[in-house]
Amino acid sequence: MVTNTFRWSIFSVLLFFVLSLTFGVVFAENNKNEQGFQKKEDREEWKIPGGEPRVEITPAVKVLVRGAKITAISGNEITTKVSFGTPEILWVVRTSPSTQLSRLFGGKTTLSEFSVGDVVSFSGVLVDSVSPLTVQADVVKDWSIQKTQASFLGTVSLITASSSFTLTTKNQGVLTVTTSASTTFKKENDTVSFSSIASGDKVEVKGLFNNTSRVLTADKVYLLKKETVKPPKTLEGGVLRSVSASTTPATLVVQFKNVDYSVSVDADTALLSNVWTKINLSDLRAGDKIRIYGSESVSTSTLIEATVVRDTSIPR
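The structure assignment produced for this chain is given below.
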């Protein structure tokens, strides 16, 4: 149980740092959400990957830290530091099976994907006020892991090894596809193998895409007929779940009738508001109402190459 003495020792130590070193540590009192933290929309740094370095502590000793850099990983503990120029605050972040670990684009992850040097944000309860400060984390997000589940259509441009190839796509350019013993290969209704793939083949790939290295680790590879795309159509009443990037090319995940669709957008895709004015990908928010005009994949109807994306929640 956290005692008042413990709380005041924490506050006095950190307040000293705030006043003497102008750290930017915030004891959030106004514009708070239900956890006591300053509202997301009121903080400009939420627009910056990882956020500007920031520390918030509520009177209930709940902590929110952004812009921390990992210095060490041991077992279920992450050692981090938050730098404000020369001054630094050191943190030990304890995780447990109930801690939610996520990547930049929101997918679940494990500590095995975390690396020294990664930028993270975390929230939880402060359990030790002795430096380094220790937090029992309920949420940790690694902003440096740019991986997300994705699907792509394209043409095999080069077989680079016995288990990988380069794929030229319309919306994402050239990327590398790697396969493994667990990857499944399909051609129409038949199960085939990697050796069935040749340069020039039209394929659809699904798996974990690393936006930094431009490598997709494939779970499934579909070899397609020449007619790979159905005639364009309009899908209405969608709800935006996520956006992979703030600039094109990007992939939107939009839910229509409880089914998630992967929607590819590129520089030629028209992004429009409800009143038909042009908007940017950065204007889109999770939960927005979406209409799509585009072409579905023949093999996977939940993969769409968008010609028009209309956000009917804008203007807000």
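Interim note for the steering committee: Confidence is low (pLDDT under 50) at residues 4-9, 15-32, 34-49. Helices lie at 4-21.
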